[in-house]
Amino acid sequence: MKRILVGLTMAATLAAATIPAAQARDGIGAGGAAALGVLGGLAVGGAIASSQNNGYYPGRPVYREPRPVYVEEEVCHTERRGFVDAYGYEHIRRVRVCE
After folding, report:
1. Domain assignment present for 89
2. pLDDT < 70 regions, the chain
3. Domains in the chain: how many in total?
4. Residue 53 · residue 69 · CB < 8 Å
5. pTM to 2 decimals?
């Protein structure tokens, strides 16, 4: 049924697209005839594009194991430590300490 309906729609659109060419001689300007022809072409293209639409089915869902909630990680913090360089100057640097 759907194919028959699409076929009839395409035939009617093609017939309507040829009418502007005939009417251009009878009084519709060339611009109007071109515009009607473009609209007819768009209608035919839309009918063809919608007839190929089978819908989208993404497939079955994939279930994965969730990440563990409680993971033991190293506990790190930053400490300020002072040191004396080779010239005798005292410096304070931040050092990352992990337990």
Report:
1. no
2. 1-2, 5, 8, 11, 14-26, 52-57
3. 1
4. no
5. 0.30
